[in-house]
Amino acid sequence: MKLDKFTVKQLAEIDSCTRCGNCLDLCSAYSGSGDVAISPKKKMEVLKRLVDAQYGIFQKIFKRNKISDKDIEKISKAAFECTMCSRCEQECYINIKLQDIWLRLREILVEEGKYPEVLDILREKLLKARNVSFDTNEGRINWINQIAELPEDKYIKEKAEVIYFVGCVSSFYPRVFKIPRSIVQILKTANIDFGLLGDEEWCCGFPLLTSGFREDFIEFAKHNIEKVNKTGAKYLITSCPSCYHMWKHIYSEIHSEFKMEFEVLHAAQYFYRLAKEGRFKLNPVNQKVTYHDPCDLGRNSGIYEEPRNLIKMIPGIEFIELKNNRNLSTCCGGGGNVEAVNAELSANIAKIRAQEIIDSGVDIVVSSCKQCVRTIAGALKKEKSKIKAMDISELLLESIEGASE
Amino acid sequence: MFSLFFWIIFGFFILIFFIGFFYRISIWLGGAESGIYNKKTIVTSKWVRFFKYTGSFLKRLFSRDFFKILKSFLKKSIIHVDLFKSSKLKSFIHIFMFWGFATFLIATIVYLVFVAVAPGGFPINNLSWFFMAILLDIPKMIIIFGVLLAVVRFIILKNKKKSVELKDKSAGIFIAIIVLFGFLYEASFILNNNIPIGRAVFMPAGFVISLIFSYIKINWGIVSSIFLYIHMIFLFAFVAYIPYGKYSHMVFGPIVAFINKRPND
Q1: N or C: which terminus of chain A carries fewer CB neighbours within 10 A?
Q2: Domains of chain A (ranges plus CATH)?
Q3: Per-residue pLDDT for B37 more than 60?
Q4: Among B38, B164, B253, whose Cβ lies nearest the Cβ of A18?
């Protein structure tokens, strides 16, 4: 295994792990499976052992120990059954950037060819169709057909002040079509000059990056940045935290080659700005509401307060905080491609979060992520709960349109 | 004879320690230079990287924030404040074992150097004897207490929390041998030098064992030397072992924690 693909800092971090177990106690995948082998603590132990087996001084002096196939299989299972929520990092005494290590580990395993076969299908879909569904990219805009007073161009414009980057899940999964529709309605109400990329929108590349196919996502980034730059947009907004994370943090790392001439915002941030400016009237929504922090927006991007502040601006709402919130928010189970690799694990993780939501006694759980909304809604339904799972844009639209109960 | 043997052993194990320490760093320096998303991997020699990283580390350390960094180091790496906040029991176990061992290590090295360089060994009639006797004994008892607490915690919690385990049993065996032979040396030292009870009680563990050993009629001078050599060899061997084993976080953890400092640390 090419363990020297880890960076200098990551190899130092592997040696510095104190094995205190704080990460294990916080791990969503471990909570969902009870399997210590996929916990961060065990992964770090195994990585140290593998580094020793390959580069250790005793191995160099006496003989070089090869890493067995069984070792690689075990670490591969542990690496790909991780939701990449980065909750494990939150209470590390050494402040180890565990998520970066897990990402790099996936890349190393992909190079070795030791990764779940299902990810090959995902990659093929993405490289061919430029999206995560089995549909062609021409179908990316189908969700918009239900919108009233739809202009002829379906908002696909050459020039616009704001570009709404919809994301694959919102574009292709009917269960969450309400999200992009709500966003478009809100933008219309606020008289924003916005546009869509239509079938020129490619996947942001997040599934490729998190699966370990690092080289492939750069083509997607270059294409997307080029298309948005051409519109002359001042802002790019997206309702998907993973897309947001890619645009804001990952694309900007390669932006020296592909300069971005616009500000990137999550829809919740943008709508909060508009609400503060008084661009729309907010009517009462008399409900008990809680907010689930999406991992890629919260922990991985540091955005906790703006969505909360936006919700609290809506009159009539009784806001209740979940027990695990902000940087300690538990994962919904929908991230890291775990749903594709181990659907049962994903469902178990979602069940834990759903139970926490049920225990809070709320009527509605709001999130800023379509994936979180989808998985939490599914988990709540399985628990036969009447709690509604909504995206923040749906709640906002409800308030704007004057529905109160 | 002891003097020469001591310095050879000391030098040998210190060399082993530093070989392990720098070898480990050389493994790190073989890692990828670039960040995660950069396309190019810059290839530079390990020596160039070593000086580059050492330079930036020292520059950051000896910056305007030096005292802030020192305070953070003392709080986190020495007093383990974060550990105390998250689990008081784990914190006490760690403090007993870490501080017990650190104090014991320093006191033992001072003692051994004194024995090695002073013609008559450590002065028994001097006031410093009391201080040294306590420093050699009490930390060992603190280590044992810490280990017992860890074992009890493991037995109680192992089925409830998978994060609880007995780490690195080989290190546990090392420490047990060091502590045991330390006490045996004290006992044989007391018997060989006919240390009066008034002074011997300052090494309580050694004193109790000496009461048991007093019934055995042998040359305690030779026996105490053997115990001292074994104690010394295992102590230095353990320190030399640190960079190679699972306790490497003791030396590398503070370095990485400093590099990974969070903004509000």
Answers
A1: C
A2: 3-115 (1.10.1060.10), 119-273 (3.40.50), 280-401 (3.40.50.1860)
A3: no
A4: B253
